Amino acid sequence: MVDAVTLLNQDLSPTARLAYAVLAADQLVDVGSATFDLEHIARTVGLADSDALLPVLAELTAVGVVDEREHHGLGLALSVNLEAIPPANQQPCVPCDDCGQCSCGGLRGVCQPCSEARASRVPEAERANEMDSRWVYAVSTEADPTSIKIGVAANIQKRLKQLQLGSASPIVLRWQSPGGFPLESHLHEKFTRLRIAGEWFNFQRTADPVKAINKATQTFLQQYESIH
Fold it and tell me: If phi over 0 gives left and psi between -120 and 50 gives alpha, with beta otherwise, what is residue 56?
């Protein structure tokens, strides 16, 4: 799947648009790894070598469909977005809660292998969609208060410290509420159209993000109490 807006973007060179279509086949690639060959990509789009590809990658980075940054356990990597995410809204790689490796793409700050391991030992209460003792939280960075992460944690202060490790800008706790996994899942579904990646959501067009999150929470809790 590719972003039609990017492919039709007249501000991008034809080579950049072609390169995006090729790169879109790989969502997260370790630069220089055996699974991704920049030389091959360059030749595929009609360039002499990977050095000639660098200005093309710079074009794609500027419009937010490609970003190049450090990922925990992976090193420098290219991330190809299915739709443009302005560089200012792109979030840093957050280490997995369990193993400390890259958790990008995970819905709750947990990498896929650890997520599968957790699923095998999910409490019976969670399987039954019952409330648990964890808290749901909303955080943002000081640099970008409209990009908000909605997650769940047993110890919010500990989680904030973990998030801060992957962020150059101070992490700010914006909101918190009891409700555990069921509430977190509801909020992720409620704001799915605002999702940037993983647990991060873009509230740029929302006048008061915290008020919107709290309103959705109160509605959910009232409905939950009425049926349980």
Answer: alpha
CA distances to 113, 134, 181, 195 from 220, in Å: 30, 16, 12, 19
Q: Where are the domains of the chain?
A: 4-84, 129-227
Q: Report pLDDT for 68.
A: 76
Neighbours of 103 (CB within 10 A): 27
Query: Exposed, middle or buried: residue 1 (CB in 10 Å: 0-12, 13-18, 19+)?
Result: exposed
Percent of the chain with pLDDT over 90: 34
DSSP state of 107: S
- Judge whether residue 129 has pLDDT over 70: no
Q: Hey, what CATH class is 4-84 in? A: mainly alpha
User: How far, in Å, CA of 109 to CA of 112, rounded?
Assistant: 10
Structure tokens at 106: 């995970």
Cα gap 150→215, rounded to integer Å: 14
Residue 220 in 3-state DSSP? helix
Q: Report the sign of the C-alpha dihedral through residues 184, 187, 193, 194, in that order.
A: negative
Average pLDDT score, the chain = 81
Helices (H), the chain: 4-7, 14-23, 38-44, 50-63, 112-119, 124-127, 156-165, 180-190, 209-227
